[in-house]
Design brief:
six-stranded mixed β-sheet; TIM Barrel; 36% helix; 2 domains; alpha/beta
């Protein structure tokens, strides 16, 4: 043997002692794909196999509307895809939703490491983007019902309907504490008191994550928006909450302690600012308070484009500020290629430490493993038959009945007497599914004259009346049919659907056409010597002193969702009136925001509600 050959053999022997890089090809079943391993072990095994680029992909969330192609999911190793309000398949039904999301999931699983995506959606009052799903009352109505078990049931129903379509991540519940009703998202909060918000939010989280995250009946809940929602100056959406820290913690942070105790593994950041500093870049809020004081161990996701709204000379500076403040996943949602390159440069240059990137990815992967995404990445089509099922609609119908608040009931008008023989129902909103569902229903802003399965308020009243041999007529404009003389007039008035900043109000006034309808209904009822019952559809209390004075009975129905029969259940006495105001009802704008309103003579205090 030559000296050269001996040297080569020695070198080969030495190389044989060095462990080869780990790859899927060398492991028949790598630990991260072995469900018998602990979640912690699976996370660390997968993290060790990931390149920096694969880690960067996991911290980016992209809207399906901006996705260049499904191939980009694997190309960039994207961690999440989402549907914003109104974003879905061309054919909006549960099957096509499942087909769409499963297609994105197959693209993710084709990547080198086969890491599944988390598909996120705003299922904030039921699986409300999907035509055919049950639409529950908006949160302000659930706050009026003040029934934790009912909130848990809502979460359970929503989770099952989401699972049928493949969506495993719900951007809810909203834990806003609306203190200024001019804010356009007031209806997304359960009420003005943090204790109520915390209790009901925790109950909904338990329902969404029913059986624990590893259960086949669970989706990932996301309490939002941390923190300050509902407390911005002037009720301006994405505004500034000006509060001393003790008051801010007591009012707006406290509900998150309940959410974390209920098992929340994700939290979404608020667009709002706190004392001039935007939440998306506030390390004291996202790290010192959320993680340090509250002990949160899950991952933090930004809101839609929230990082881009931070001050800064360029996008890279804004990204670094948000990530280092505590944002783990960035809801881009559009220019993901540019964000990918920016994060690459930030990590390479040390502006985002490699340890911080690992920390964020570790939290995201933990949630994916806990959800069982690696074992069950696709939609559960065995649940498709439950979407909009009678059993699910019965839960929502009960929620509607419990959410209604009777504010006035002169002469015991409610429940409707058995001596009533003819009822006139006035107002186009009585036959308008979109008006009774509000925003975040099929589309982001919601819409009037929405066509979805369910029952309108008029249809519910008509069915209940027919069962009692009561004749019912309908008039969209307050004019009774020729020769029809009612014993009772019911007029439905309210707000048009809205979401987020478009719902901000300066005056909290009922619209001109609805005021005119209420007045016409009052005149017509008086002419027939019939009492007037007004039903208000709104996302918050409005200034309705005149309407209260002109009616004999008044019901705050909030935004009850798709099951209008629940309204009739209360009106006819088939369900008890148990709803109570989750916020005080102002008589004038001077009583807004809420602080001190009760002492200043508001129309109705928090907790008010008649029980006829």
């Amino acid at each position: 043997m030559t000296r050269r050959a001996g040297t080569l053999l020695a070198l080969l022997a030495l190389l044989a002692l060095i462990p080869a890089p780990r790859s899927l090809a060398q492991d028949s079943t790598p630990p991260y794909l072995d469900p018998a391993q602990s979640v912690a072990a699976r996370v660390e095994d997968l993290l060790a196999r990931m390149s920096v680029d694969e880690k960067i992909g996991q911290v980016l969330q992209v809207s399906r509307d901006y996705l260049g192609s499904e191939a980009d999911i694997a190309r960039f190793g994207l961690g999440s895809i989402l549907s914003g309000g109104g974003s879905g398949p061309t054919v909006n039904d549960p099957v096509h939703w499942a087909d769409m999301i499963d297609g994105y999931q197959r693209a993710a699983l084709s990547s080198r490491l086969g890491i599944p995506i988390l598909y996120g959606i705003d299922a904030v009052h039921g699986h409300n983007n999907v035509r055919g799903a049950v639409i529950f009352p908006q949160n302000i109505g659930m706050g009026a019902a003040d029934d934790p078990q009912l909130c848990e049931d809502e979460g359970r129903v929503t989770a099952l309907e989401m699972l049928a379509t493949g969506a495993r991540w719900d951007f809810g519940p909203c834990l806003a504490v609306p203190r200024d009703l001019r804010w356009g998202r007031s209806y997304e909060g359960f009420g003005q008191e943090p204790e109520l918000v915390g209790e009901l939010g925790a109950a909904e989280i338990r329902g969404l994550q029913s059986g624990g995250l590893g259960s086949a009946t669970a989706v990932l809940a996301t309490p939002k928006h941390f923190a300050g929602d509902g407390g911005t100056k002037g009720g301006i959406d994405r505004g500034d909450a000006v509060y001393a820290e003790p008051d801010f913690l007591r009012l707006f942070v406290a509900p998150y302690r309940d959410a974390i105790s209920a098992g929340a593994e994700c939290a979404m950041v608020s667009f709002s600012s706190w004392n001039g500093l935007q939440d998306h870049g506030n390390r004291h809020l996202l790290t010192d308070i959320l993680r340090g004081d509250l002990g949160f161990e899950g991952f933090v996701v930004s809101d839609w484009g929230g990082v881009a709204l931070l001050p800064g000379a360029d996008e890279s500076e804004r990204i670094a500020r948000a990530v280092n403040a505590g944002v783990d996943m960035i809801m881009v949602p559009d220019v993901y290629e540019a964000y990918f390159r920016d994060v690459q440069a930030l990590v390479a240059g040390g502006s985002i430490p490699a340890s911080r990137l690992d920390e964020a990815v570790r939290r995201i992967l933990r949630a994916k493993f806990e959800l069982g995404l690696f074992e069950r990445p696709f939609s559960d089509r065995s649940l498709l038959g439950e979407v909009g099922s009678p059993e699910h609609r019965a839960v929502a119908r009960k929620a509607v009945a419990e959410s209604l608040v009777v504010l006035k009931n002169d002469g015991g008008l409610l429940p409707i007497s058995s001596t009533t023989k003819r009822i006139l129902v006035d107002g186009s909103r009585a036959q308008d599914m979109g008006a009774q569902c509000g925003g975040w229903t099929i589309t982001w802003q919601g819409m009037r004259a929405l066509s979805i399965p369910g029952t309108t308020i008029y249809d519910g009243i008509a069915a209940a009346a027919k069962a009692r041999d009561i004749e019912v007529a309908y008039s969209p404009d307050g004019r009774a049919p020729q020769g029809f003389k009612p014993d009772l007039v019911i007029a439905v008035v309210g707000e048009d659907p809205y979401a987020e900043g478009r719902g901000d109000s300066r005056d909290l006034a009922l619209g001109y056409s609805d005021k005119a309808l209420a007045r016409k209904a009052a005149v017509g009822a008086a002419a027939c010597k019939a009492p007037l019952l007004l039903i208000l559809l709104s996302g918050r209390p409005l200034l309705v002193g005149d309407e209260l004075a002109e009616s004999q009975a008044f019901v705050a129905a909030w935004l009850p969702g798709s099951e209008g029969e629940g309204v009739a259940d209360l009106l006819f006495g088939d369900a008890p009136a148990r709803g109570k105001l989750p916020c005080s009802w102002p008589a004038t704008l001077a009583q807004v925001p809420v602080d001190g309103a009760e002492a200043q003579g508001c129309l109705f205090p928090t907790g008010y509600g008649l029980e006829p």
